[in-house]
Amino acid sequence: MENKQQSNGVMKEKKAVKKKVNWSGSLIAASLTGAFGSSFLYGYNLSVVNAPAGYIKKFYNETWERRYGFSVDEGTLTLLWSITVSIFAIGGLVGAIIVTPIVKFFGRKCTLVLNNVFAVAAALLMSLSLLAGSFEMLILGRIVMGVDAGISLSALPMYLSEISPKEIRGSLGQVTAIFICIGVLTGQVLGLPEIFGQESRWPFLFGAIIVPALIQAVILPFLPESPRYLLLEKHNTSKAEKAFQRFLGKDDVSHEIEEVLAESRVQRNTKMVSVVELLRTRAVRWQIVTVVVTMGCYQLCGLNAIWYYTNNIFSESGIKHETIPYVTLSTGAVETLAAVFSGLVIERLGRRPLLIGGFGLMIVFFSVLTVSLTLQNTVHWLPYLSIFCILAIIASFCIGPGGIPFVLTGEFFQQSQRPAAFMIAGTVNWLSNFAVGLLFPFIQAGLQTYCFLVFAGICFAGATYLFFVLPETKNKTFHEISQAFAKRNKITLEMQEMKHYPGERKSSEEQESNFTSSVDNGETKKEIV
């Protein structure tokens, strides 16, 4: 009877904790500012090159003719343009590789702030390329901008996952995806003929990159660093407590500090793990495989192919050529609304249903789109069905696969493993991005409208794997998530500690005396356990 009462008391206490979770001003400011100068710019640079493509190709041709006295041939022009578009992924791969030592040394927040140097440099190179008469500056700027994106798409989810309470970790993590979508939509809007989509104004499309970068560089330094980074890696208890207090909007953060210390007792030390060491760690084997699968499917599921077909399908539907840029805004709007919807429901529905369900819906709509594109010349209303399928595929992607992979990467790994894990995730992400850009033209040429069945197959493979392997991580600590994977990894947490941290078997009392402190009446004091 007494045990039952204690159990009920614990459940009530957990519910009370959940009810107290709120979005503090610092938490909102950090997430919005961090995303605006990071994932927003990634999305913006995905779409910004589409509107001025014709003008940029003309600039390439004129520059070539001025230098060499003859016009560039069509093959070389196509090659130059392909390099301009795809080189962004190469820069992203470089950024993903170098992010690990940067976030270890500078921290999560400072990495995001310093990363704006790349954004500003890229904006200046690209916006001044027309004035300087150098298309090489535009290509170089795309590489530098890719480095910025590669760093930010690892550092930002890492930062957001470490500053948010577990009760809203998924919703806050979706901020990354939401701002990617807003960036895509912004690039479409600014590329309209009435704004910067004109021959004399296209450099302003790239110069606009400076604005989010400077806003982030000015505001983010006044917000706290990740408290987990401060506590577990810098061993600065005082600053960690203050960071927790600002992010959570309350004075008593002893419960949150104890949760972090529980992780430190499991990992026994805070020595950062390298990528090679992480790959050799049996206890996270299936977590790594799951991250690779989700990140690979994120890029290979066919959304880039959808963007390729959009204008053609709109044209086939009878929409006038000059009207298509305005109609295309509907794709960016649907993308943004779906991402916002996912952020609102992720803590209610969980990661599994949204991720698996998103891939499942994409399979259905890819199949219907294949049929409608194949038969659209025989039935007059089928092009409208194709338009619906395009919007439905975009919405299905953004509901789950478009943002949850970044959330999962932050949730699967403990503090010492997280930078290496994000480096692996980022590498897979950018390599897959480059592979799609390189191979899709050949797939499309060979299979025509049936190319979407390839992407449906990839979505099916990803959904099947996740159905059997992925546990629900909603409202769970790292320790609980590790337990969910322990059976599949064929290792217990006790075995993990003995295997990976021999000689570091400090007692709980010693660990807590090094790190644990609580706030009482505004004074910081050691906690005796």
TrEMBL record:
Q: Which GO terms describe its cellular component?
A: plasma membrane
Q: Name one GO biological process term.
A: D-glucose import
Membrane topology per the entry is: Multi-pass membrane protein
Which Pfam families does the entry link to?
Answer: Sugar_tr
What region holds the Major facilitator superfamily (MFS) profile domain? Answer: 31-474
| An example Gene Ontology molecular-function term | D-glucose transmembrane transporter activity
Answer yes or no on keyword Methyltransferase.
no
Tell me the keywords, alphabetical order. Answer: Membrane, Transmembrane, Transmembrane helix, Transport
Question: Which chain regions cross the lipid bilayer?
Answer: 21-42, 79-100, 112-133, 139-160, 172-190, 202-223, 288-309, 324-346, 353-375, 381-408, 420-441, 447-470
Tell me where it resides: Membrane
Region Disordered: start-end pairs = 500-529
Q: Which family does it belong to?
A: Belongs to the major facilitator superfamily. Sugar transporter (TC 2.A.1.1) family.
PANTHER family in the record, alphabetically?
Answer: SOLUTE CARRIER FAMILY 2, SOLUTE CARRIER FAMILY 2, FACILITATED GLUCOSE TRANSPORTER MEMBER 9
Q: Which NCBIfam families match?
A: SP
Q: What is this protein called?
A: GTR9 protein
